[in-house]
Every structure is written in C-alpha cells, then in structure tokens.
Design brief:
CATH class of the largest domain: Mainly Beta
Order of helices and strands: HHHHHHEHHHEEEEEE
Strand order of the largest sheet: 2-1-7-6-5-4-3
Oligomer: single chain
Largest sheet: 7 strands, mixed
Helix content: 25-40%
CATH topology of the largest domain: FAS1 domain
Mean pLDDT: 85
Distance between the termini: 78 Å
Low-confidence stretches: 1-36
Number of strands: 7
Number of domains: 2
Radius of gyration: 23 Å
Shape: globular
Length: 193
C-alpha cells in the first residue's frame, strides 16, 4: 500500500467520524448529557406540565411565590403565610427548601395540624427546619448532612433517583428550581428534635 493511498484512507476515516458530528447525528446524546441535572423522581409527573405551577413556571419566581402556584404545595403555602415567612423565603438567596406536599400534611391528624398552625412560634420552627441555607442538589443527597435555618440538621441518603431525608421522608420530585432556591419535594413533614 502506498503512502498516498494510506493517507487517503486515513482522511476518509476521519471524515466518517467528523461528518456525523457536524451534521448533528450525535447531538441527542450531547443534549441529554447537558440536561441530565434537571428535576428527578416519580412525583414530578404530578406537577402541572404548563403554567406558573409547572417546573418551568416555578423557575421564574422566588420560592414562596413559586410554591403558591403549585397545587401540590397549597397546604405548605398556607402554613408559610400563617407563620409570616413569605417575604423571608422570597428574599433568601441560594437556599434549599424541602417542601412537603399536601399529602404529607394530610398524614398529620387534623387536630394536631390545626394546633400547630395556630401556634406561630412552633410553626416557624417546623417550617424553618425544612430550609437549608445553601443550594443542595441531587449530587449532594447521597450521604448529606445540612444545617437548617431552624438550627437543626437534616440528613439525606440514597442513590439514583431515590433519596430519603431523616430516615422518614422520601424525595418524590427533586431539584425543582426557583429563582432563588432549589426545591426538594418530599412526602412527609419533617419534625425538628
């Protein structure tokens, strides 16, 4: 085989690799890799697919406002309003909110929930226990320990798309972005010790 023939074959082989990339043949893999860090978990399917309460809609607003647009978080929003924490949450920077769903609050007997909702001091302690003063995302959840605004500590463990908080709550839809916070939607209300 002559040197020029070898050079032509090498050039053709290189073109066979370069051309599909330049025409976008490999683009879907690149796109998937670029968006692998979005929301995760089985509960994400329950979120609205469009509008202000959707994942895209929540990303535009600060966390308390974003939650108020999501029908799965209406009980949490009522509690935040009762505690007077709307402005505090909306003005916080780079926080993470472990947000219990309506079903999570429904696990608490109504008489107990009503008692807590009527006690602003106790309610504030419980709600601020759900907020971490730093951005926590999926990569941090495998074996995490985070100080809350209440002063306590949350622990997380898990892998893949399955993570547990304080041995009691499951993250059902994680890494939901808002303009000032990351939201981990959970299936159980967390209680400070």
């Amino acid at each position: 085989m002559s040197t020029s023939h070898f050079a032509r074959r090498a050039a053709a082989a290189a073109a066979a690799v370069v051309l599909p990339v330049s025409f976008g043949v490999l683009a879907p893999q690149s796109f998937a890799a670029a968006h692998a860090d979005g929301p995760f978990g089985p509960g994400c399917a329950a979120l609205p697919t469009s509008g202000e309460g959707s994942v895209d809609g929540m990303a535009d607003d600060p966390v308390a406002t974003a939650a108020s647009n999501n029908p799965e978080l209406s009980t949490l929003v009522s509690a935040v309003k009762a505690a007077g924490l709307v402005d505090t949450l909306n003005n916080a920077e780079n926080v993470t909110v472990f947000a219990p769903t309506n079903d999570a609050f429904a696990k608490i007997p109504k008489a107990d929930l009503d008692k807590v909702l009527a006690d602003k001091e106790q309610l504030t302690k419980i709600l601020t226990y759900h907020v971490v003063g730093e951005k926590v995302d999926k990569a941090d959840l495998a074996d995490g320990s985070f100080k809350t605004l209440q002063g306590g500590t949350l622990t997380t463990y898990g892998s893949g798309d399955a993570f547990t908080v304080n041995d009691t709550a499951k993250i059902i839809c994680g890494d939901v972005p808002t303009s000032n916070a990351n939201v981990q939607i959970i299936d159980t209300v967390l209680m400070p010790k």
